[in-house]
Amino acid sequence: MSTKPPGRVADKDSRLLERPTRKSTEARTRIIRVAEQLFAEGGIASVSLREISSNAGFANNNAVQYHFGDKDALVRAVFEYRYRPLDDERRRLLAELPDHPTADDIIATTARCLVLPAATLLDDPEGSFHLRFAAQLYQQPDHNILTTTGDLWRELFGGSDSVVRSVFRLVETHFTDIDKDVLILRERFASALVTNAMSAREAAEQNFPRDLRASRDVFVAELLRSVRMLLAADP
Fold first, then answer.
1. Which of 10, 65, 89, 209 could tie 117 with a disulfide, CB 3.0–4.6 Å?
2. 201-233: pLDDT as tens digits
3. CA 181, CA 224: separation in Å to the nearest integer?
4. pLDDT score for 222
5. How many other C-beta atoms are found inside a 10 Å radius of the C-beta of residue 219?
6. What predicted TM-score, i.e. pTM, was given to this entire model?
């Protein structure tokens, strides 16, 4: 029979219970970052869970399935890894709208919410592949948020807590003279424009950082202008 005080046994058990949780969080993050890069470079459909597990340094080829279940769940986790933090900046931009905004105010704020938070990823000190990953969501048949029935779009952008959804709702409220289905298409076109332009910029700056850094402000300004023009076009 053990002679150790019950309290010390309980403390040891508590520490043992904490370690798997911490390690699990670290493992999930490592998988997400590796998957982000592999999906960005090779396409979502072409990358296997086994390949992700191997590149993340796991001897067990089923590590991704253990932590995420399946590829769809991993795709959502990769998206949310960057997307949720960017929403904090979108909320700040949205809060800058005046109490009684004009249509121009709403269009300008919508453009800023789409473009400016995404642009911050270009300065990620660890290196970002997220913009290229996000662009894959418009290119892969099984994970296409532009041309499918819209289930993935609603899941990623349609929730009540989605700042992007809140911003687009403002657009739809103020542009009642434009058919709602047309506005929804413009919203998706604007998102696709920003995502694909930013994806190309991310890749270019990674390959030619010194050559392109000086021109980024012009790139961002012109992308903002393009989004505004798209959303505000005559019906």
1. 89
2. 999 988 887 777 779 999 999 999 999 999 988
3. 23
4. 97
5. 19
6. 0.78
DSSP-assigned states of every residue in the chain? ---S-HHHHHHHHHHHHHHHHHHHHHHHHHHHHHHHHHHHHH-TTT--HHHHHHHTT-SSTTHHHHHHSSHHHHHHHHHHHHHHHHHHHHHHHHHTS-SS--HHHHHHHHHHHHHHHHHHGGG-TT---HHHHHHHTTT-GGG-TTTS-SHHHHHHH-STT-HHHHHHHHHHHH-TTS-HHHHHHHHHHHHHHHHHHHHHHHHHHHHSHHHHGGGHHHHHHHHHHHHHHHHH---
CA pair distance 47, 71, nearest whole angstrom = 10
Query: Could you report the per-residue pLDDT of 145-199, keeping only the tens digit for each?
Result: 444 444 555 555 555 457 888 888 889 888 888 898 898 889 888 988 999 999 9
Scanning the structure block, which residue is given the tokens 């910029």?
Answer: 201
Q: What type of residue is 235? A: P
